[in-house]
Structures are given as structure tokens and as C-alpha cells.
Amino acid sequence: MKRLVLAASILAASAVSAFAADMPARIAKAPVAPPVVTYDWSGIYVGGAVGGAWHDTAGDFYNFPGFLWSTGNSDTALIYGGFAGIQKQWGNFVLGVEGGFNALDNGFNTTAGTGLIGSGCGLVVGLSCQSRVNDIWYIGGRVGYAWNRFMVYGQGGYAQADIDTQTLLNGTGVTFDHAGASHGGWYAGVGGEYAVLDNLIIGIDYKHYEFDSKQHNCNLALITCNPLNNRNVDADVDAVMARLSYKFNPWPTAPVVARY
Fold first, then answer.
1. Do 153 and 143 touch, CB atoms closer than 8 A?
2. What is the reported pTM?
3. Fold exhibited by the domain 43-257
4. Other CB atoms within 10 A of residue 171 CB
5. How are the residues of the chain apportioned to helix, strand and coil, as percentages rounded to the nearest 5?
6. What does residue 181 show for φ and ψ, rounded to 5 degrees?
7. CA separation, residue 213 to residues 59, 109, 164, 173 (Å)
8. DSSP 145
9. Quick one: which of 55, 83, 189, 219 has the most CB atoms within 10 Å?
10. Terminal CA-to-CA distance of the chain, rounded, Å?
């Protein structure tokens, strides 16, 4: 009897061992990484900017078809101003709206007249075309992509500039045919920003502006006005500016979770 019980025990142990050997091995699961909590770009911001601008003006004397009015030698100027905006972050994407005003610290851009059809400035020799962009304001959208405290963005929207033009008598400094207008247009550009502190942001910004053609007609009541020199004028401006802004979020939400 004892031999029978011992044999049965050995047989049962062998069966259990064989069954265990046939079972698939357990696969160890890797630990789940915690979500990445990033800097939140959402909020309202205000700031200032300063940099350099390059502008050209072009057009024609509409009383004399074929004769051009232009100061297209890319005059440079100091540009400075302020801006404000509001934006919201979803994952890595940041969408917002920004508006700003910039002044240009520059004199008149000058191109000497040639008296020739199709030349840059069609005034007679001895005279020059002059232009100056006084200020620019803009409002438009921004679309950004953020990596924690660093963000790059594209931008674009509506812009308007006040532009003055006049005629210069070379060698004397005497000017006449003074005229000006507000020109509507558009802008587009790119930029990058870095949040040094939770509320303090530095950045670099590039904008290209295109302003529509408007008539620049001098005041007929002035003896310094020659209506024969009235002209159509358009302009473009390129500006690169360093930015410093302060951001605050009046609507705090859950921490932003983004993928990197």
C-alpha cells in the first residue's frame, strides 16, 4: 500500500511539472512614464520691442503715364514700439491674437530724378523723390509650436502705415509738393520666444509689411504745391525686432501636458 501511495505521489508531481513547463512565460511590463508637465503659454501679455527696419516706396506720376515715382534704395531706420496679445495653448500648439504699434525714427529716403520714362524717379534732373514711413500699427493672428519654455511661431494679419512724400530741390534742401496718406495693407512673419521666468519672456521677431497704393496729392492752397507732381505711392517694410514681454494668466487651468 505504501508503495502504491508513493508511486501515485511521484506521478502527480511529474504531471504538475510538465504542465508548468508548458505554460507561457510571464512578460514583465515596463513602468508607465509620468506625463510631461510643461510651461503654459496661455494668457495675456504686454511688452515692448526695438530693432531695425528697411523700407522702399514706389509708384508713378499719374498725370504723366510711364514716368515713375520711387525711392527704392532700401532706406534703413530704427523701429520701436509696443504690443499686446492673448493666446491659448493646446498640447504643443499655441494660438493667439496680437496687436501693436511701431514708430520709425528716420529721415526722408531720397532718389535723384533722371527725367526719363521708366526710371526710378521720373522727376527732371536737379530734383529728387523723397519718402518717409512714420509709423505702423498691426493686428493679426499667431500660430506657435512650443517645447516647454521655448516657442516658435508664424504670424500674419492687417497693417496700416502713415507715409509722407515730397520733392527735394537738390543742393538747396528746399522741399515742396508735400503730401501724405494712411496706407492699409498686410503683414506676415515668424519669430521665436523663450520664457526666462514664468511671467518674463524674451524673443526675436521678423515681419514683412506690404502697403497698398494710395494717391499722394499736395495741397493746392500752398504755393509749394505743383499738382503736376501728384503721384500714386505704395510701400513695403521689413522689420527685425527684439522683444520683451510680461505674461499673466487670469484663467489658470490644469497643467499643460505635451508630447516631446
1. yes
2. 0.83
3. Porin (2.40.160)
4. 7
5. 10, 60, 30
6. -160, 160
7. 8, 18, 13, 27
8. E
9. 55
10. 71
